[in-house]
Queue: 4 jobs
Job 1
Amino acid sequence: MSPEGEIINNNRVFFHVDLDAFYASVEQIDHPEYRGKPVIVGAKPGSRGVVSTCSYEARKFGIKSAMPISKAYRLCPNGIYLPVRMKRYMEVSQAVMDILREYTPTFQQISIDEAFLDMTGTERLFGPPAETAKEIKQRVKEKTGLTLSIGIAPNRYLAKLASDYDKPDGLYIVRAEEAEKFVEKLELKDLWGVGKKTLEKLRQSNITTVKKLKATPKSTLVRLLGRAAAEYLYKAARGIDPGIHQTENKTHSISSEATFQRDLKDLSEIYRALFEISSQVMYRLLRENKRSKTVVLKIRYSDFTTLTVQKSLKHWVTSSDEVYKTAKELFSLKWNSTKPIRLLGIGLHNVESPTGIAQGELFQNDFNKMHKIEETIVKLKNKDSNIKITRASLLTKPGTSKPGRDNPG
Ligand code: TTP
Ligand code: MG
């Protein structure tokens, strides 16, 4: 059962807050010359990596998160392509979360750029929810320059759908009595927690809209999708919180890998790839609110021989830099420099959820710790010129990425 019970309770008020085009917006704030332009943050064009996110200007070209960067480049060859600067995004995220936390003791950060706020009963202190939401938007804008979208609803699930409904710079309220109508307006793919495979199975049974989903008996859904997914969808379609925190996939490992268009031999290129893969895998760990101590590196050579090597740390992995450092260490143990590399992958194994009821808070603590550690690393790096040189060579100069030879352009 969801934390707020199965019925939609008229008296509960939840905010879901989500920053707009987060990484890309930070780049536009830090570099005013990128404002109003298509900015794509992610892997280097020409590599086999993916788009992390892009500005709304770039979305007009059809670019989306997780799309291969080569496809993005084809859609928008004149875009500004930038590498992920995780440390900077975490710093900005922290500044935003600090503001949000002031509004409620039941604050729950669920990823780098989004949080739930239980605002039930705060009206006397802060005024009507919509006014409070406007104030939050204004304060975040003043402090960081960022815009965000807020959904307000009687449960977390609806609040999440509502923040997405009016993006960017949105504010959307779903009242208890309008909940079912609101969900009916959405496309099936917009229901949070409904993945591609589920959509495809539904489509095969001609269940293509929320209305049709609602009209499908639960027993049919169970037959099609199994009990857990059926229960989830049955509730979601009616605006009842299906228990979002149990829906995230229960994988025991999180990984990311890249096959290269051109086999890699050059160490600086290899390090650059490891750096990109590290930030992707760390992002996934954060997004799923999971933690892990074990880093696994996979190397596949051009002759297809493949090896994996792993290291377990004594503590939870706390930053993308740490993943990168460990991956590099593992790499140097196993690298056969005579053979070109076709694929590199990094996995975080034995992932688990922080235990206890206050997951959000724990996550927050981890997040603070991570932030401090990232800061310390940077300070150390500034002292150690060798490390500085290594890092500098990994960074692309903004806007100067060259397309790979397989990219038309
Ligand atoms: P999102 O909130 O999903 O996306 P967004 O903030 O860029 O855009 P929107 O306005 O639609 O909210 O994710 C937050 C950040 O997480 C995003 O800026 C980059 C990162 N991210 C990835 O690295 N890979 C991904 O596949 C996704 C979806 C996000
Ligand atoms: Mg966002």
Job 2
Amino acid sequence: MKIGIYGGTFNPPHLGHVTAARAAAELLKLDQLLLIPAGLPPHKDLPAGSPTPDQRLEMTRLAADQTGLAGRVGVLDLEVHREGKSYTSDTLKDLKARYPDDELWLLMGTDMFLTLQAWHAPEEILSLAGIAAFGRTEADTEELFAHQRDYLYKTYPQARIFTMTIPGVVDVSSTELREQLAKGGGGHLLPPAVYGYILRNGLYGTHADLKRLPFSQLRPVALSYLKYQRIPHVLGTEQEAIRLAERYGADVEKARVAALLHDCTKKLNMEQQLELCGRYGISLDELEQKALKLLHAKTGAAVARDVFGVDADVYSAIWWHTTGHGNMTLLEKIIYLADYIEPSRDFPGVDKLRRVCYKDLDEGLLLGLEMTIQEMTDMGNPVHRATIEARDALKR
Ligand code: ATP
């Protein structure tokens, strides 16, 4: 197996890192890519007020997710939790012990490649892993690499070196980004979920008021709660909710907020869901106690109100978005259906359901509820009584 190892301070991880990681994984045909945030970087001091190592770890996880290399990319916490300086030679020894039969490739940008001989134990590094170096800017051409490559080959005969030019390289550094973030900019140079995480936690001098976020910030913040695969669904739900709200004269802003936040606790497991239910005093019926899918609507509504200060209309639209209920408001219907028919949904009957929803909202809702009840029954799953009540109310 070919394993890429990409270390860095990742303070914060930015689009330069993500683009380089993705391109290197393709060019080197890596089976696996490991991102490893440094605990105490040997090459640079962490500026005062930097996020905690665990926050850098979490941001790196979000950035890894956004490489789109699902299943092939992972983040390791071995440097973050190691005492003392995070020497790459120690990390490589550790990884060699974990993967004795695999080929290790150490990924790095120009600045790191050009100073490799000055790192701690370069000989050991070069004996344990091949070096894969890439340019950080368009100006970092092959000529720049060639001189250093020759030098390393002469000095360390065991060296294996691969240099590459990355298409669409993003010329940005974490240092510049930290300055931009403190001045209210920089979001466009970060993976959206990382930007959202930074805003959510007030990192790097950002002071976003989470209860009054403009959509340009609410969107990345909402994405920072999601698994990568769920992002198209939530963005699709936002678009569908806008369209339905315009079509039926609902409050478009509220529809957007509810759509963006409706799945904000979806990635949590049962234990985490139950912890939130305890924290927010959410009582559960017998079915809900067992059905993870039903819990996220309730905990999502509670988080949306507590953290983002959403009003009662948005709160209840998120609360009822999975089951529906017997007396639904216009906004509740819109979020229920936007979630159901948004453009990335693909299941038998979705086109018909879309057509009916834009012809008559209640007819669409009835059809959606009936399809859900049928599907659950076919799968032998119990149907929540609120869903039955919603259908029966519409039939009447
Ligand atoms: P700082 O500005 O704090 O020095 P940085 O942007 O260089 O940070 P690091 O986390 O120190 O980020 O970098 C980790 C690795 O990513 C290094 O090998 C570095 O060369 C590489 N790298 C950093 N920025 C880019 C970029 N824009 N494109 C490609 N590689 C990059």
Job 3
Amino acid sequence: MSTTGILFVTGATSGFGRAIAEIFASHQWKVIITGRRQERLDALKTELENKYKTSVLPLCFDVRDEMEVNNAVNSLPADWKNIDVLVNNAGLALGKEVLQEGDSMQWVTMIDTNIKGLLYVTKAVSPLLIERKKGTIINIGSIAGKESYTGGNVYSATKFAVDGLTKNMRLDFLPHHIRVSQIAPGAAETEFSLVRFSGDQSKADATYKGFMPLDARDIAEAAWFIATRPPHVCINDLVIMPTAQANATTFNRNSN
Ligand code: NDP
Ligand code: 8X3
């Protein structure tokens, strides 16, 4: 599948989603970019269209709001409905306290975004793939959805849910010739830690201190690889970590 197509990627205003939008645009795919920050979506549309001479359609909505999700997907013009690849990427971690000291409002936000948001978007977009009897869905999980770590609790649980949902979606979409993949990254330097630590730059920097983390492009290249396999090949699961990270909690922090 190396011909062009249409990508729908959530969370394209930053990090992995932005890099995924760019790599597909650079191969002349049409890209539907989504997120809550309209100004970033508009700036990305201008940048990608100028750089790659392709078409970019921004959709501004909150994945936690099912009605907003449905309205956005229903608003797609006819020539944007032939979606080939859906990347469920929008997500976040908030806080890293042990459970007994956790903030229940942060738990709700993570559950609503990382699990319910993924479900709402998939339910709204997948009929467009089913209709055409083809397509690829890529869920962005995490090493936190494979292993537990202290303070990971609810974030980790949401990513274990993504891991489980990916396997279930593979069953549900099997009759419809739709392949479902997961990418589970380890430490990657995006806005993720800044969001997790409520804008505390020193805490965000400390996360990546002493080693070279992944960057967004590393994950985008994996998404591109998955999406461009021949139609009979499904990459079920890719766990990708920095060379300096051995598991969720063990790093070589003397490696750069
Ligand atoms: P960023 O913070 O850089 O990007 C997160 C994106 O998600 C933004 O575009 C943001 O857009 C969007 N988003 C968050 N909440 C919502 C919402 N309610 N509605 C719509 N969009 C939303 O982080 P990353 O790029 O690193 O994270 C992307 C995904 O990768 C997440 O699912 C994260 O859990 C996962 N991940 C990250 C890792 C890392 O180390 N960076 C490792 C493993 C997994 P906006 O704010 O404009 O709405
Ligand atoms: C992000 C990676 O290990 O900080 O999903 O949870 S981790």
Job 4
Amino acid sequence: MAIENKIVVSGIRSTGKLHLGNYFGAMQNYVKMQDDYPCYFFVADYHSLTTHPDPKDLRASVYRVLSENIAAGLDPEKVTLYAQSDIPEIPELYLMLNMLAYKGELEKVPTFKDKVRQNPNNVNAGLLTYPVLMAADILIHRASLVPVGKDQEQHLEMARNFAQRFNSRYGELFPEPQPFNFGDALVKVMSLDGSGGKMSKSENENATIYLADDDDSIRKKVMKAKTDSGPIEANSLMPEYIASLFSLMRLVSAPATVAAFEEHFNQCTIRYGDMKKQLAEDMIEFVRPIREKAKALELDAPLLQSILKRGAEQARAHAAFTISEARKLIGINYY
Ligand code: TYM
């Protein structure tokens, strides 16, 4: 049964292999929400165009996101699963919302500033208005809940601002979407490089555990994670890179395993080599079934195509109402 009929929307960019950050920040929540809410989940392929991917790679990237989500437990019979570019109502709403979004506020968004720093030769308008397209993705379904990781918090705040602005200028149409996670707070899965940064699709492949990684590469990546010779005083403060390893362990290992290593840390008897071996084995056990299932699905193009086609029909039918209401409220209503 749907809880108060709240609508759920979320998306993942098709820019590479999905990783543990995507899983624990977003996908895990999708799977838990699918039984209780009307859910719209999509592959954000338009968003991926900001970095100009090779056209030859796009289809495989979209298939991969789809396959990895289904392998992680998403059921296409329970949720609407589609590609963003199949829903022309999204760019139409994006255009409308662009008139309510200001250059100054878009330039201040931290993810925009990061991208400008990383890639100063490709500061395109799509990058600047990225949060507006994301707001359109969400508002097109009049969603209330958006399962995302911590890195998307600011984008959600902007989506709420655009919804409010539209409602107060033209009339009530959009609920204010809230970021959602089944824990207390939004999740940030840390990179293995000990830098304090998050795991990410594009930065430092060696510090990111992908859902497609084989057992050996997981072992190698985890064993390379930064540690030191261990604490010398009981109950001392954990350095950030050790705290990161513990936070990763909490995601994939049994609570008793984590507690045992914490106790060793506090008693200064911890052997980081043992801890990393355990962490690697637990990650391998976690990743293996998803990897194997996704590998098989990725090869089943007819199945993926039929899921995308059906998803697009359902999502368009739902989006059509929002667009026709938005047009009426704006005054685009001539005959
Ligand atoms: P993307 O593709 O970068 O990531 C997809 C989802 O994974 C989460 N995530 C993480 N969570 C915790 N720790 C990490 N290290 C980590 N890395 C990624 C992200 O928070 C996200 O939930 N802009 C979005 C895609 C998008 C979208 C939307 C999301 C487009 N339109 C509408 C929600 C609603 C993005 O680039 O996510």
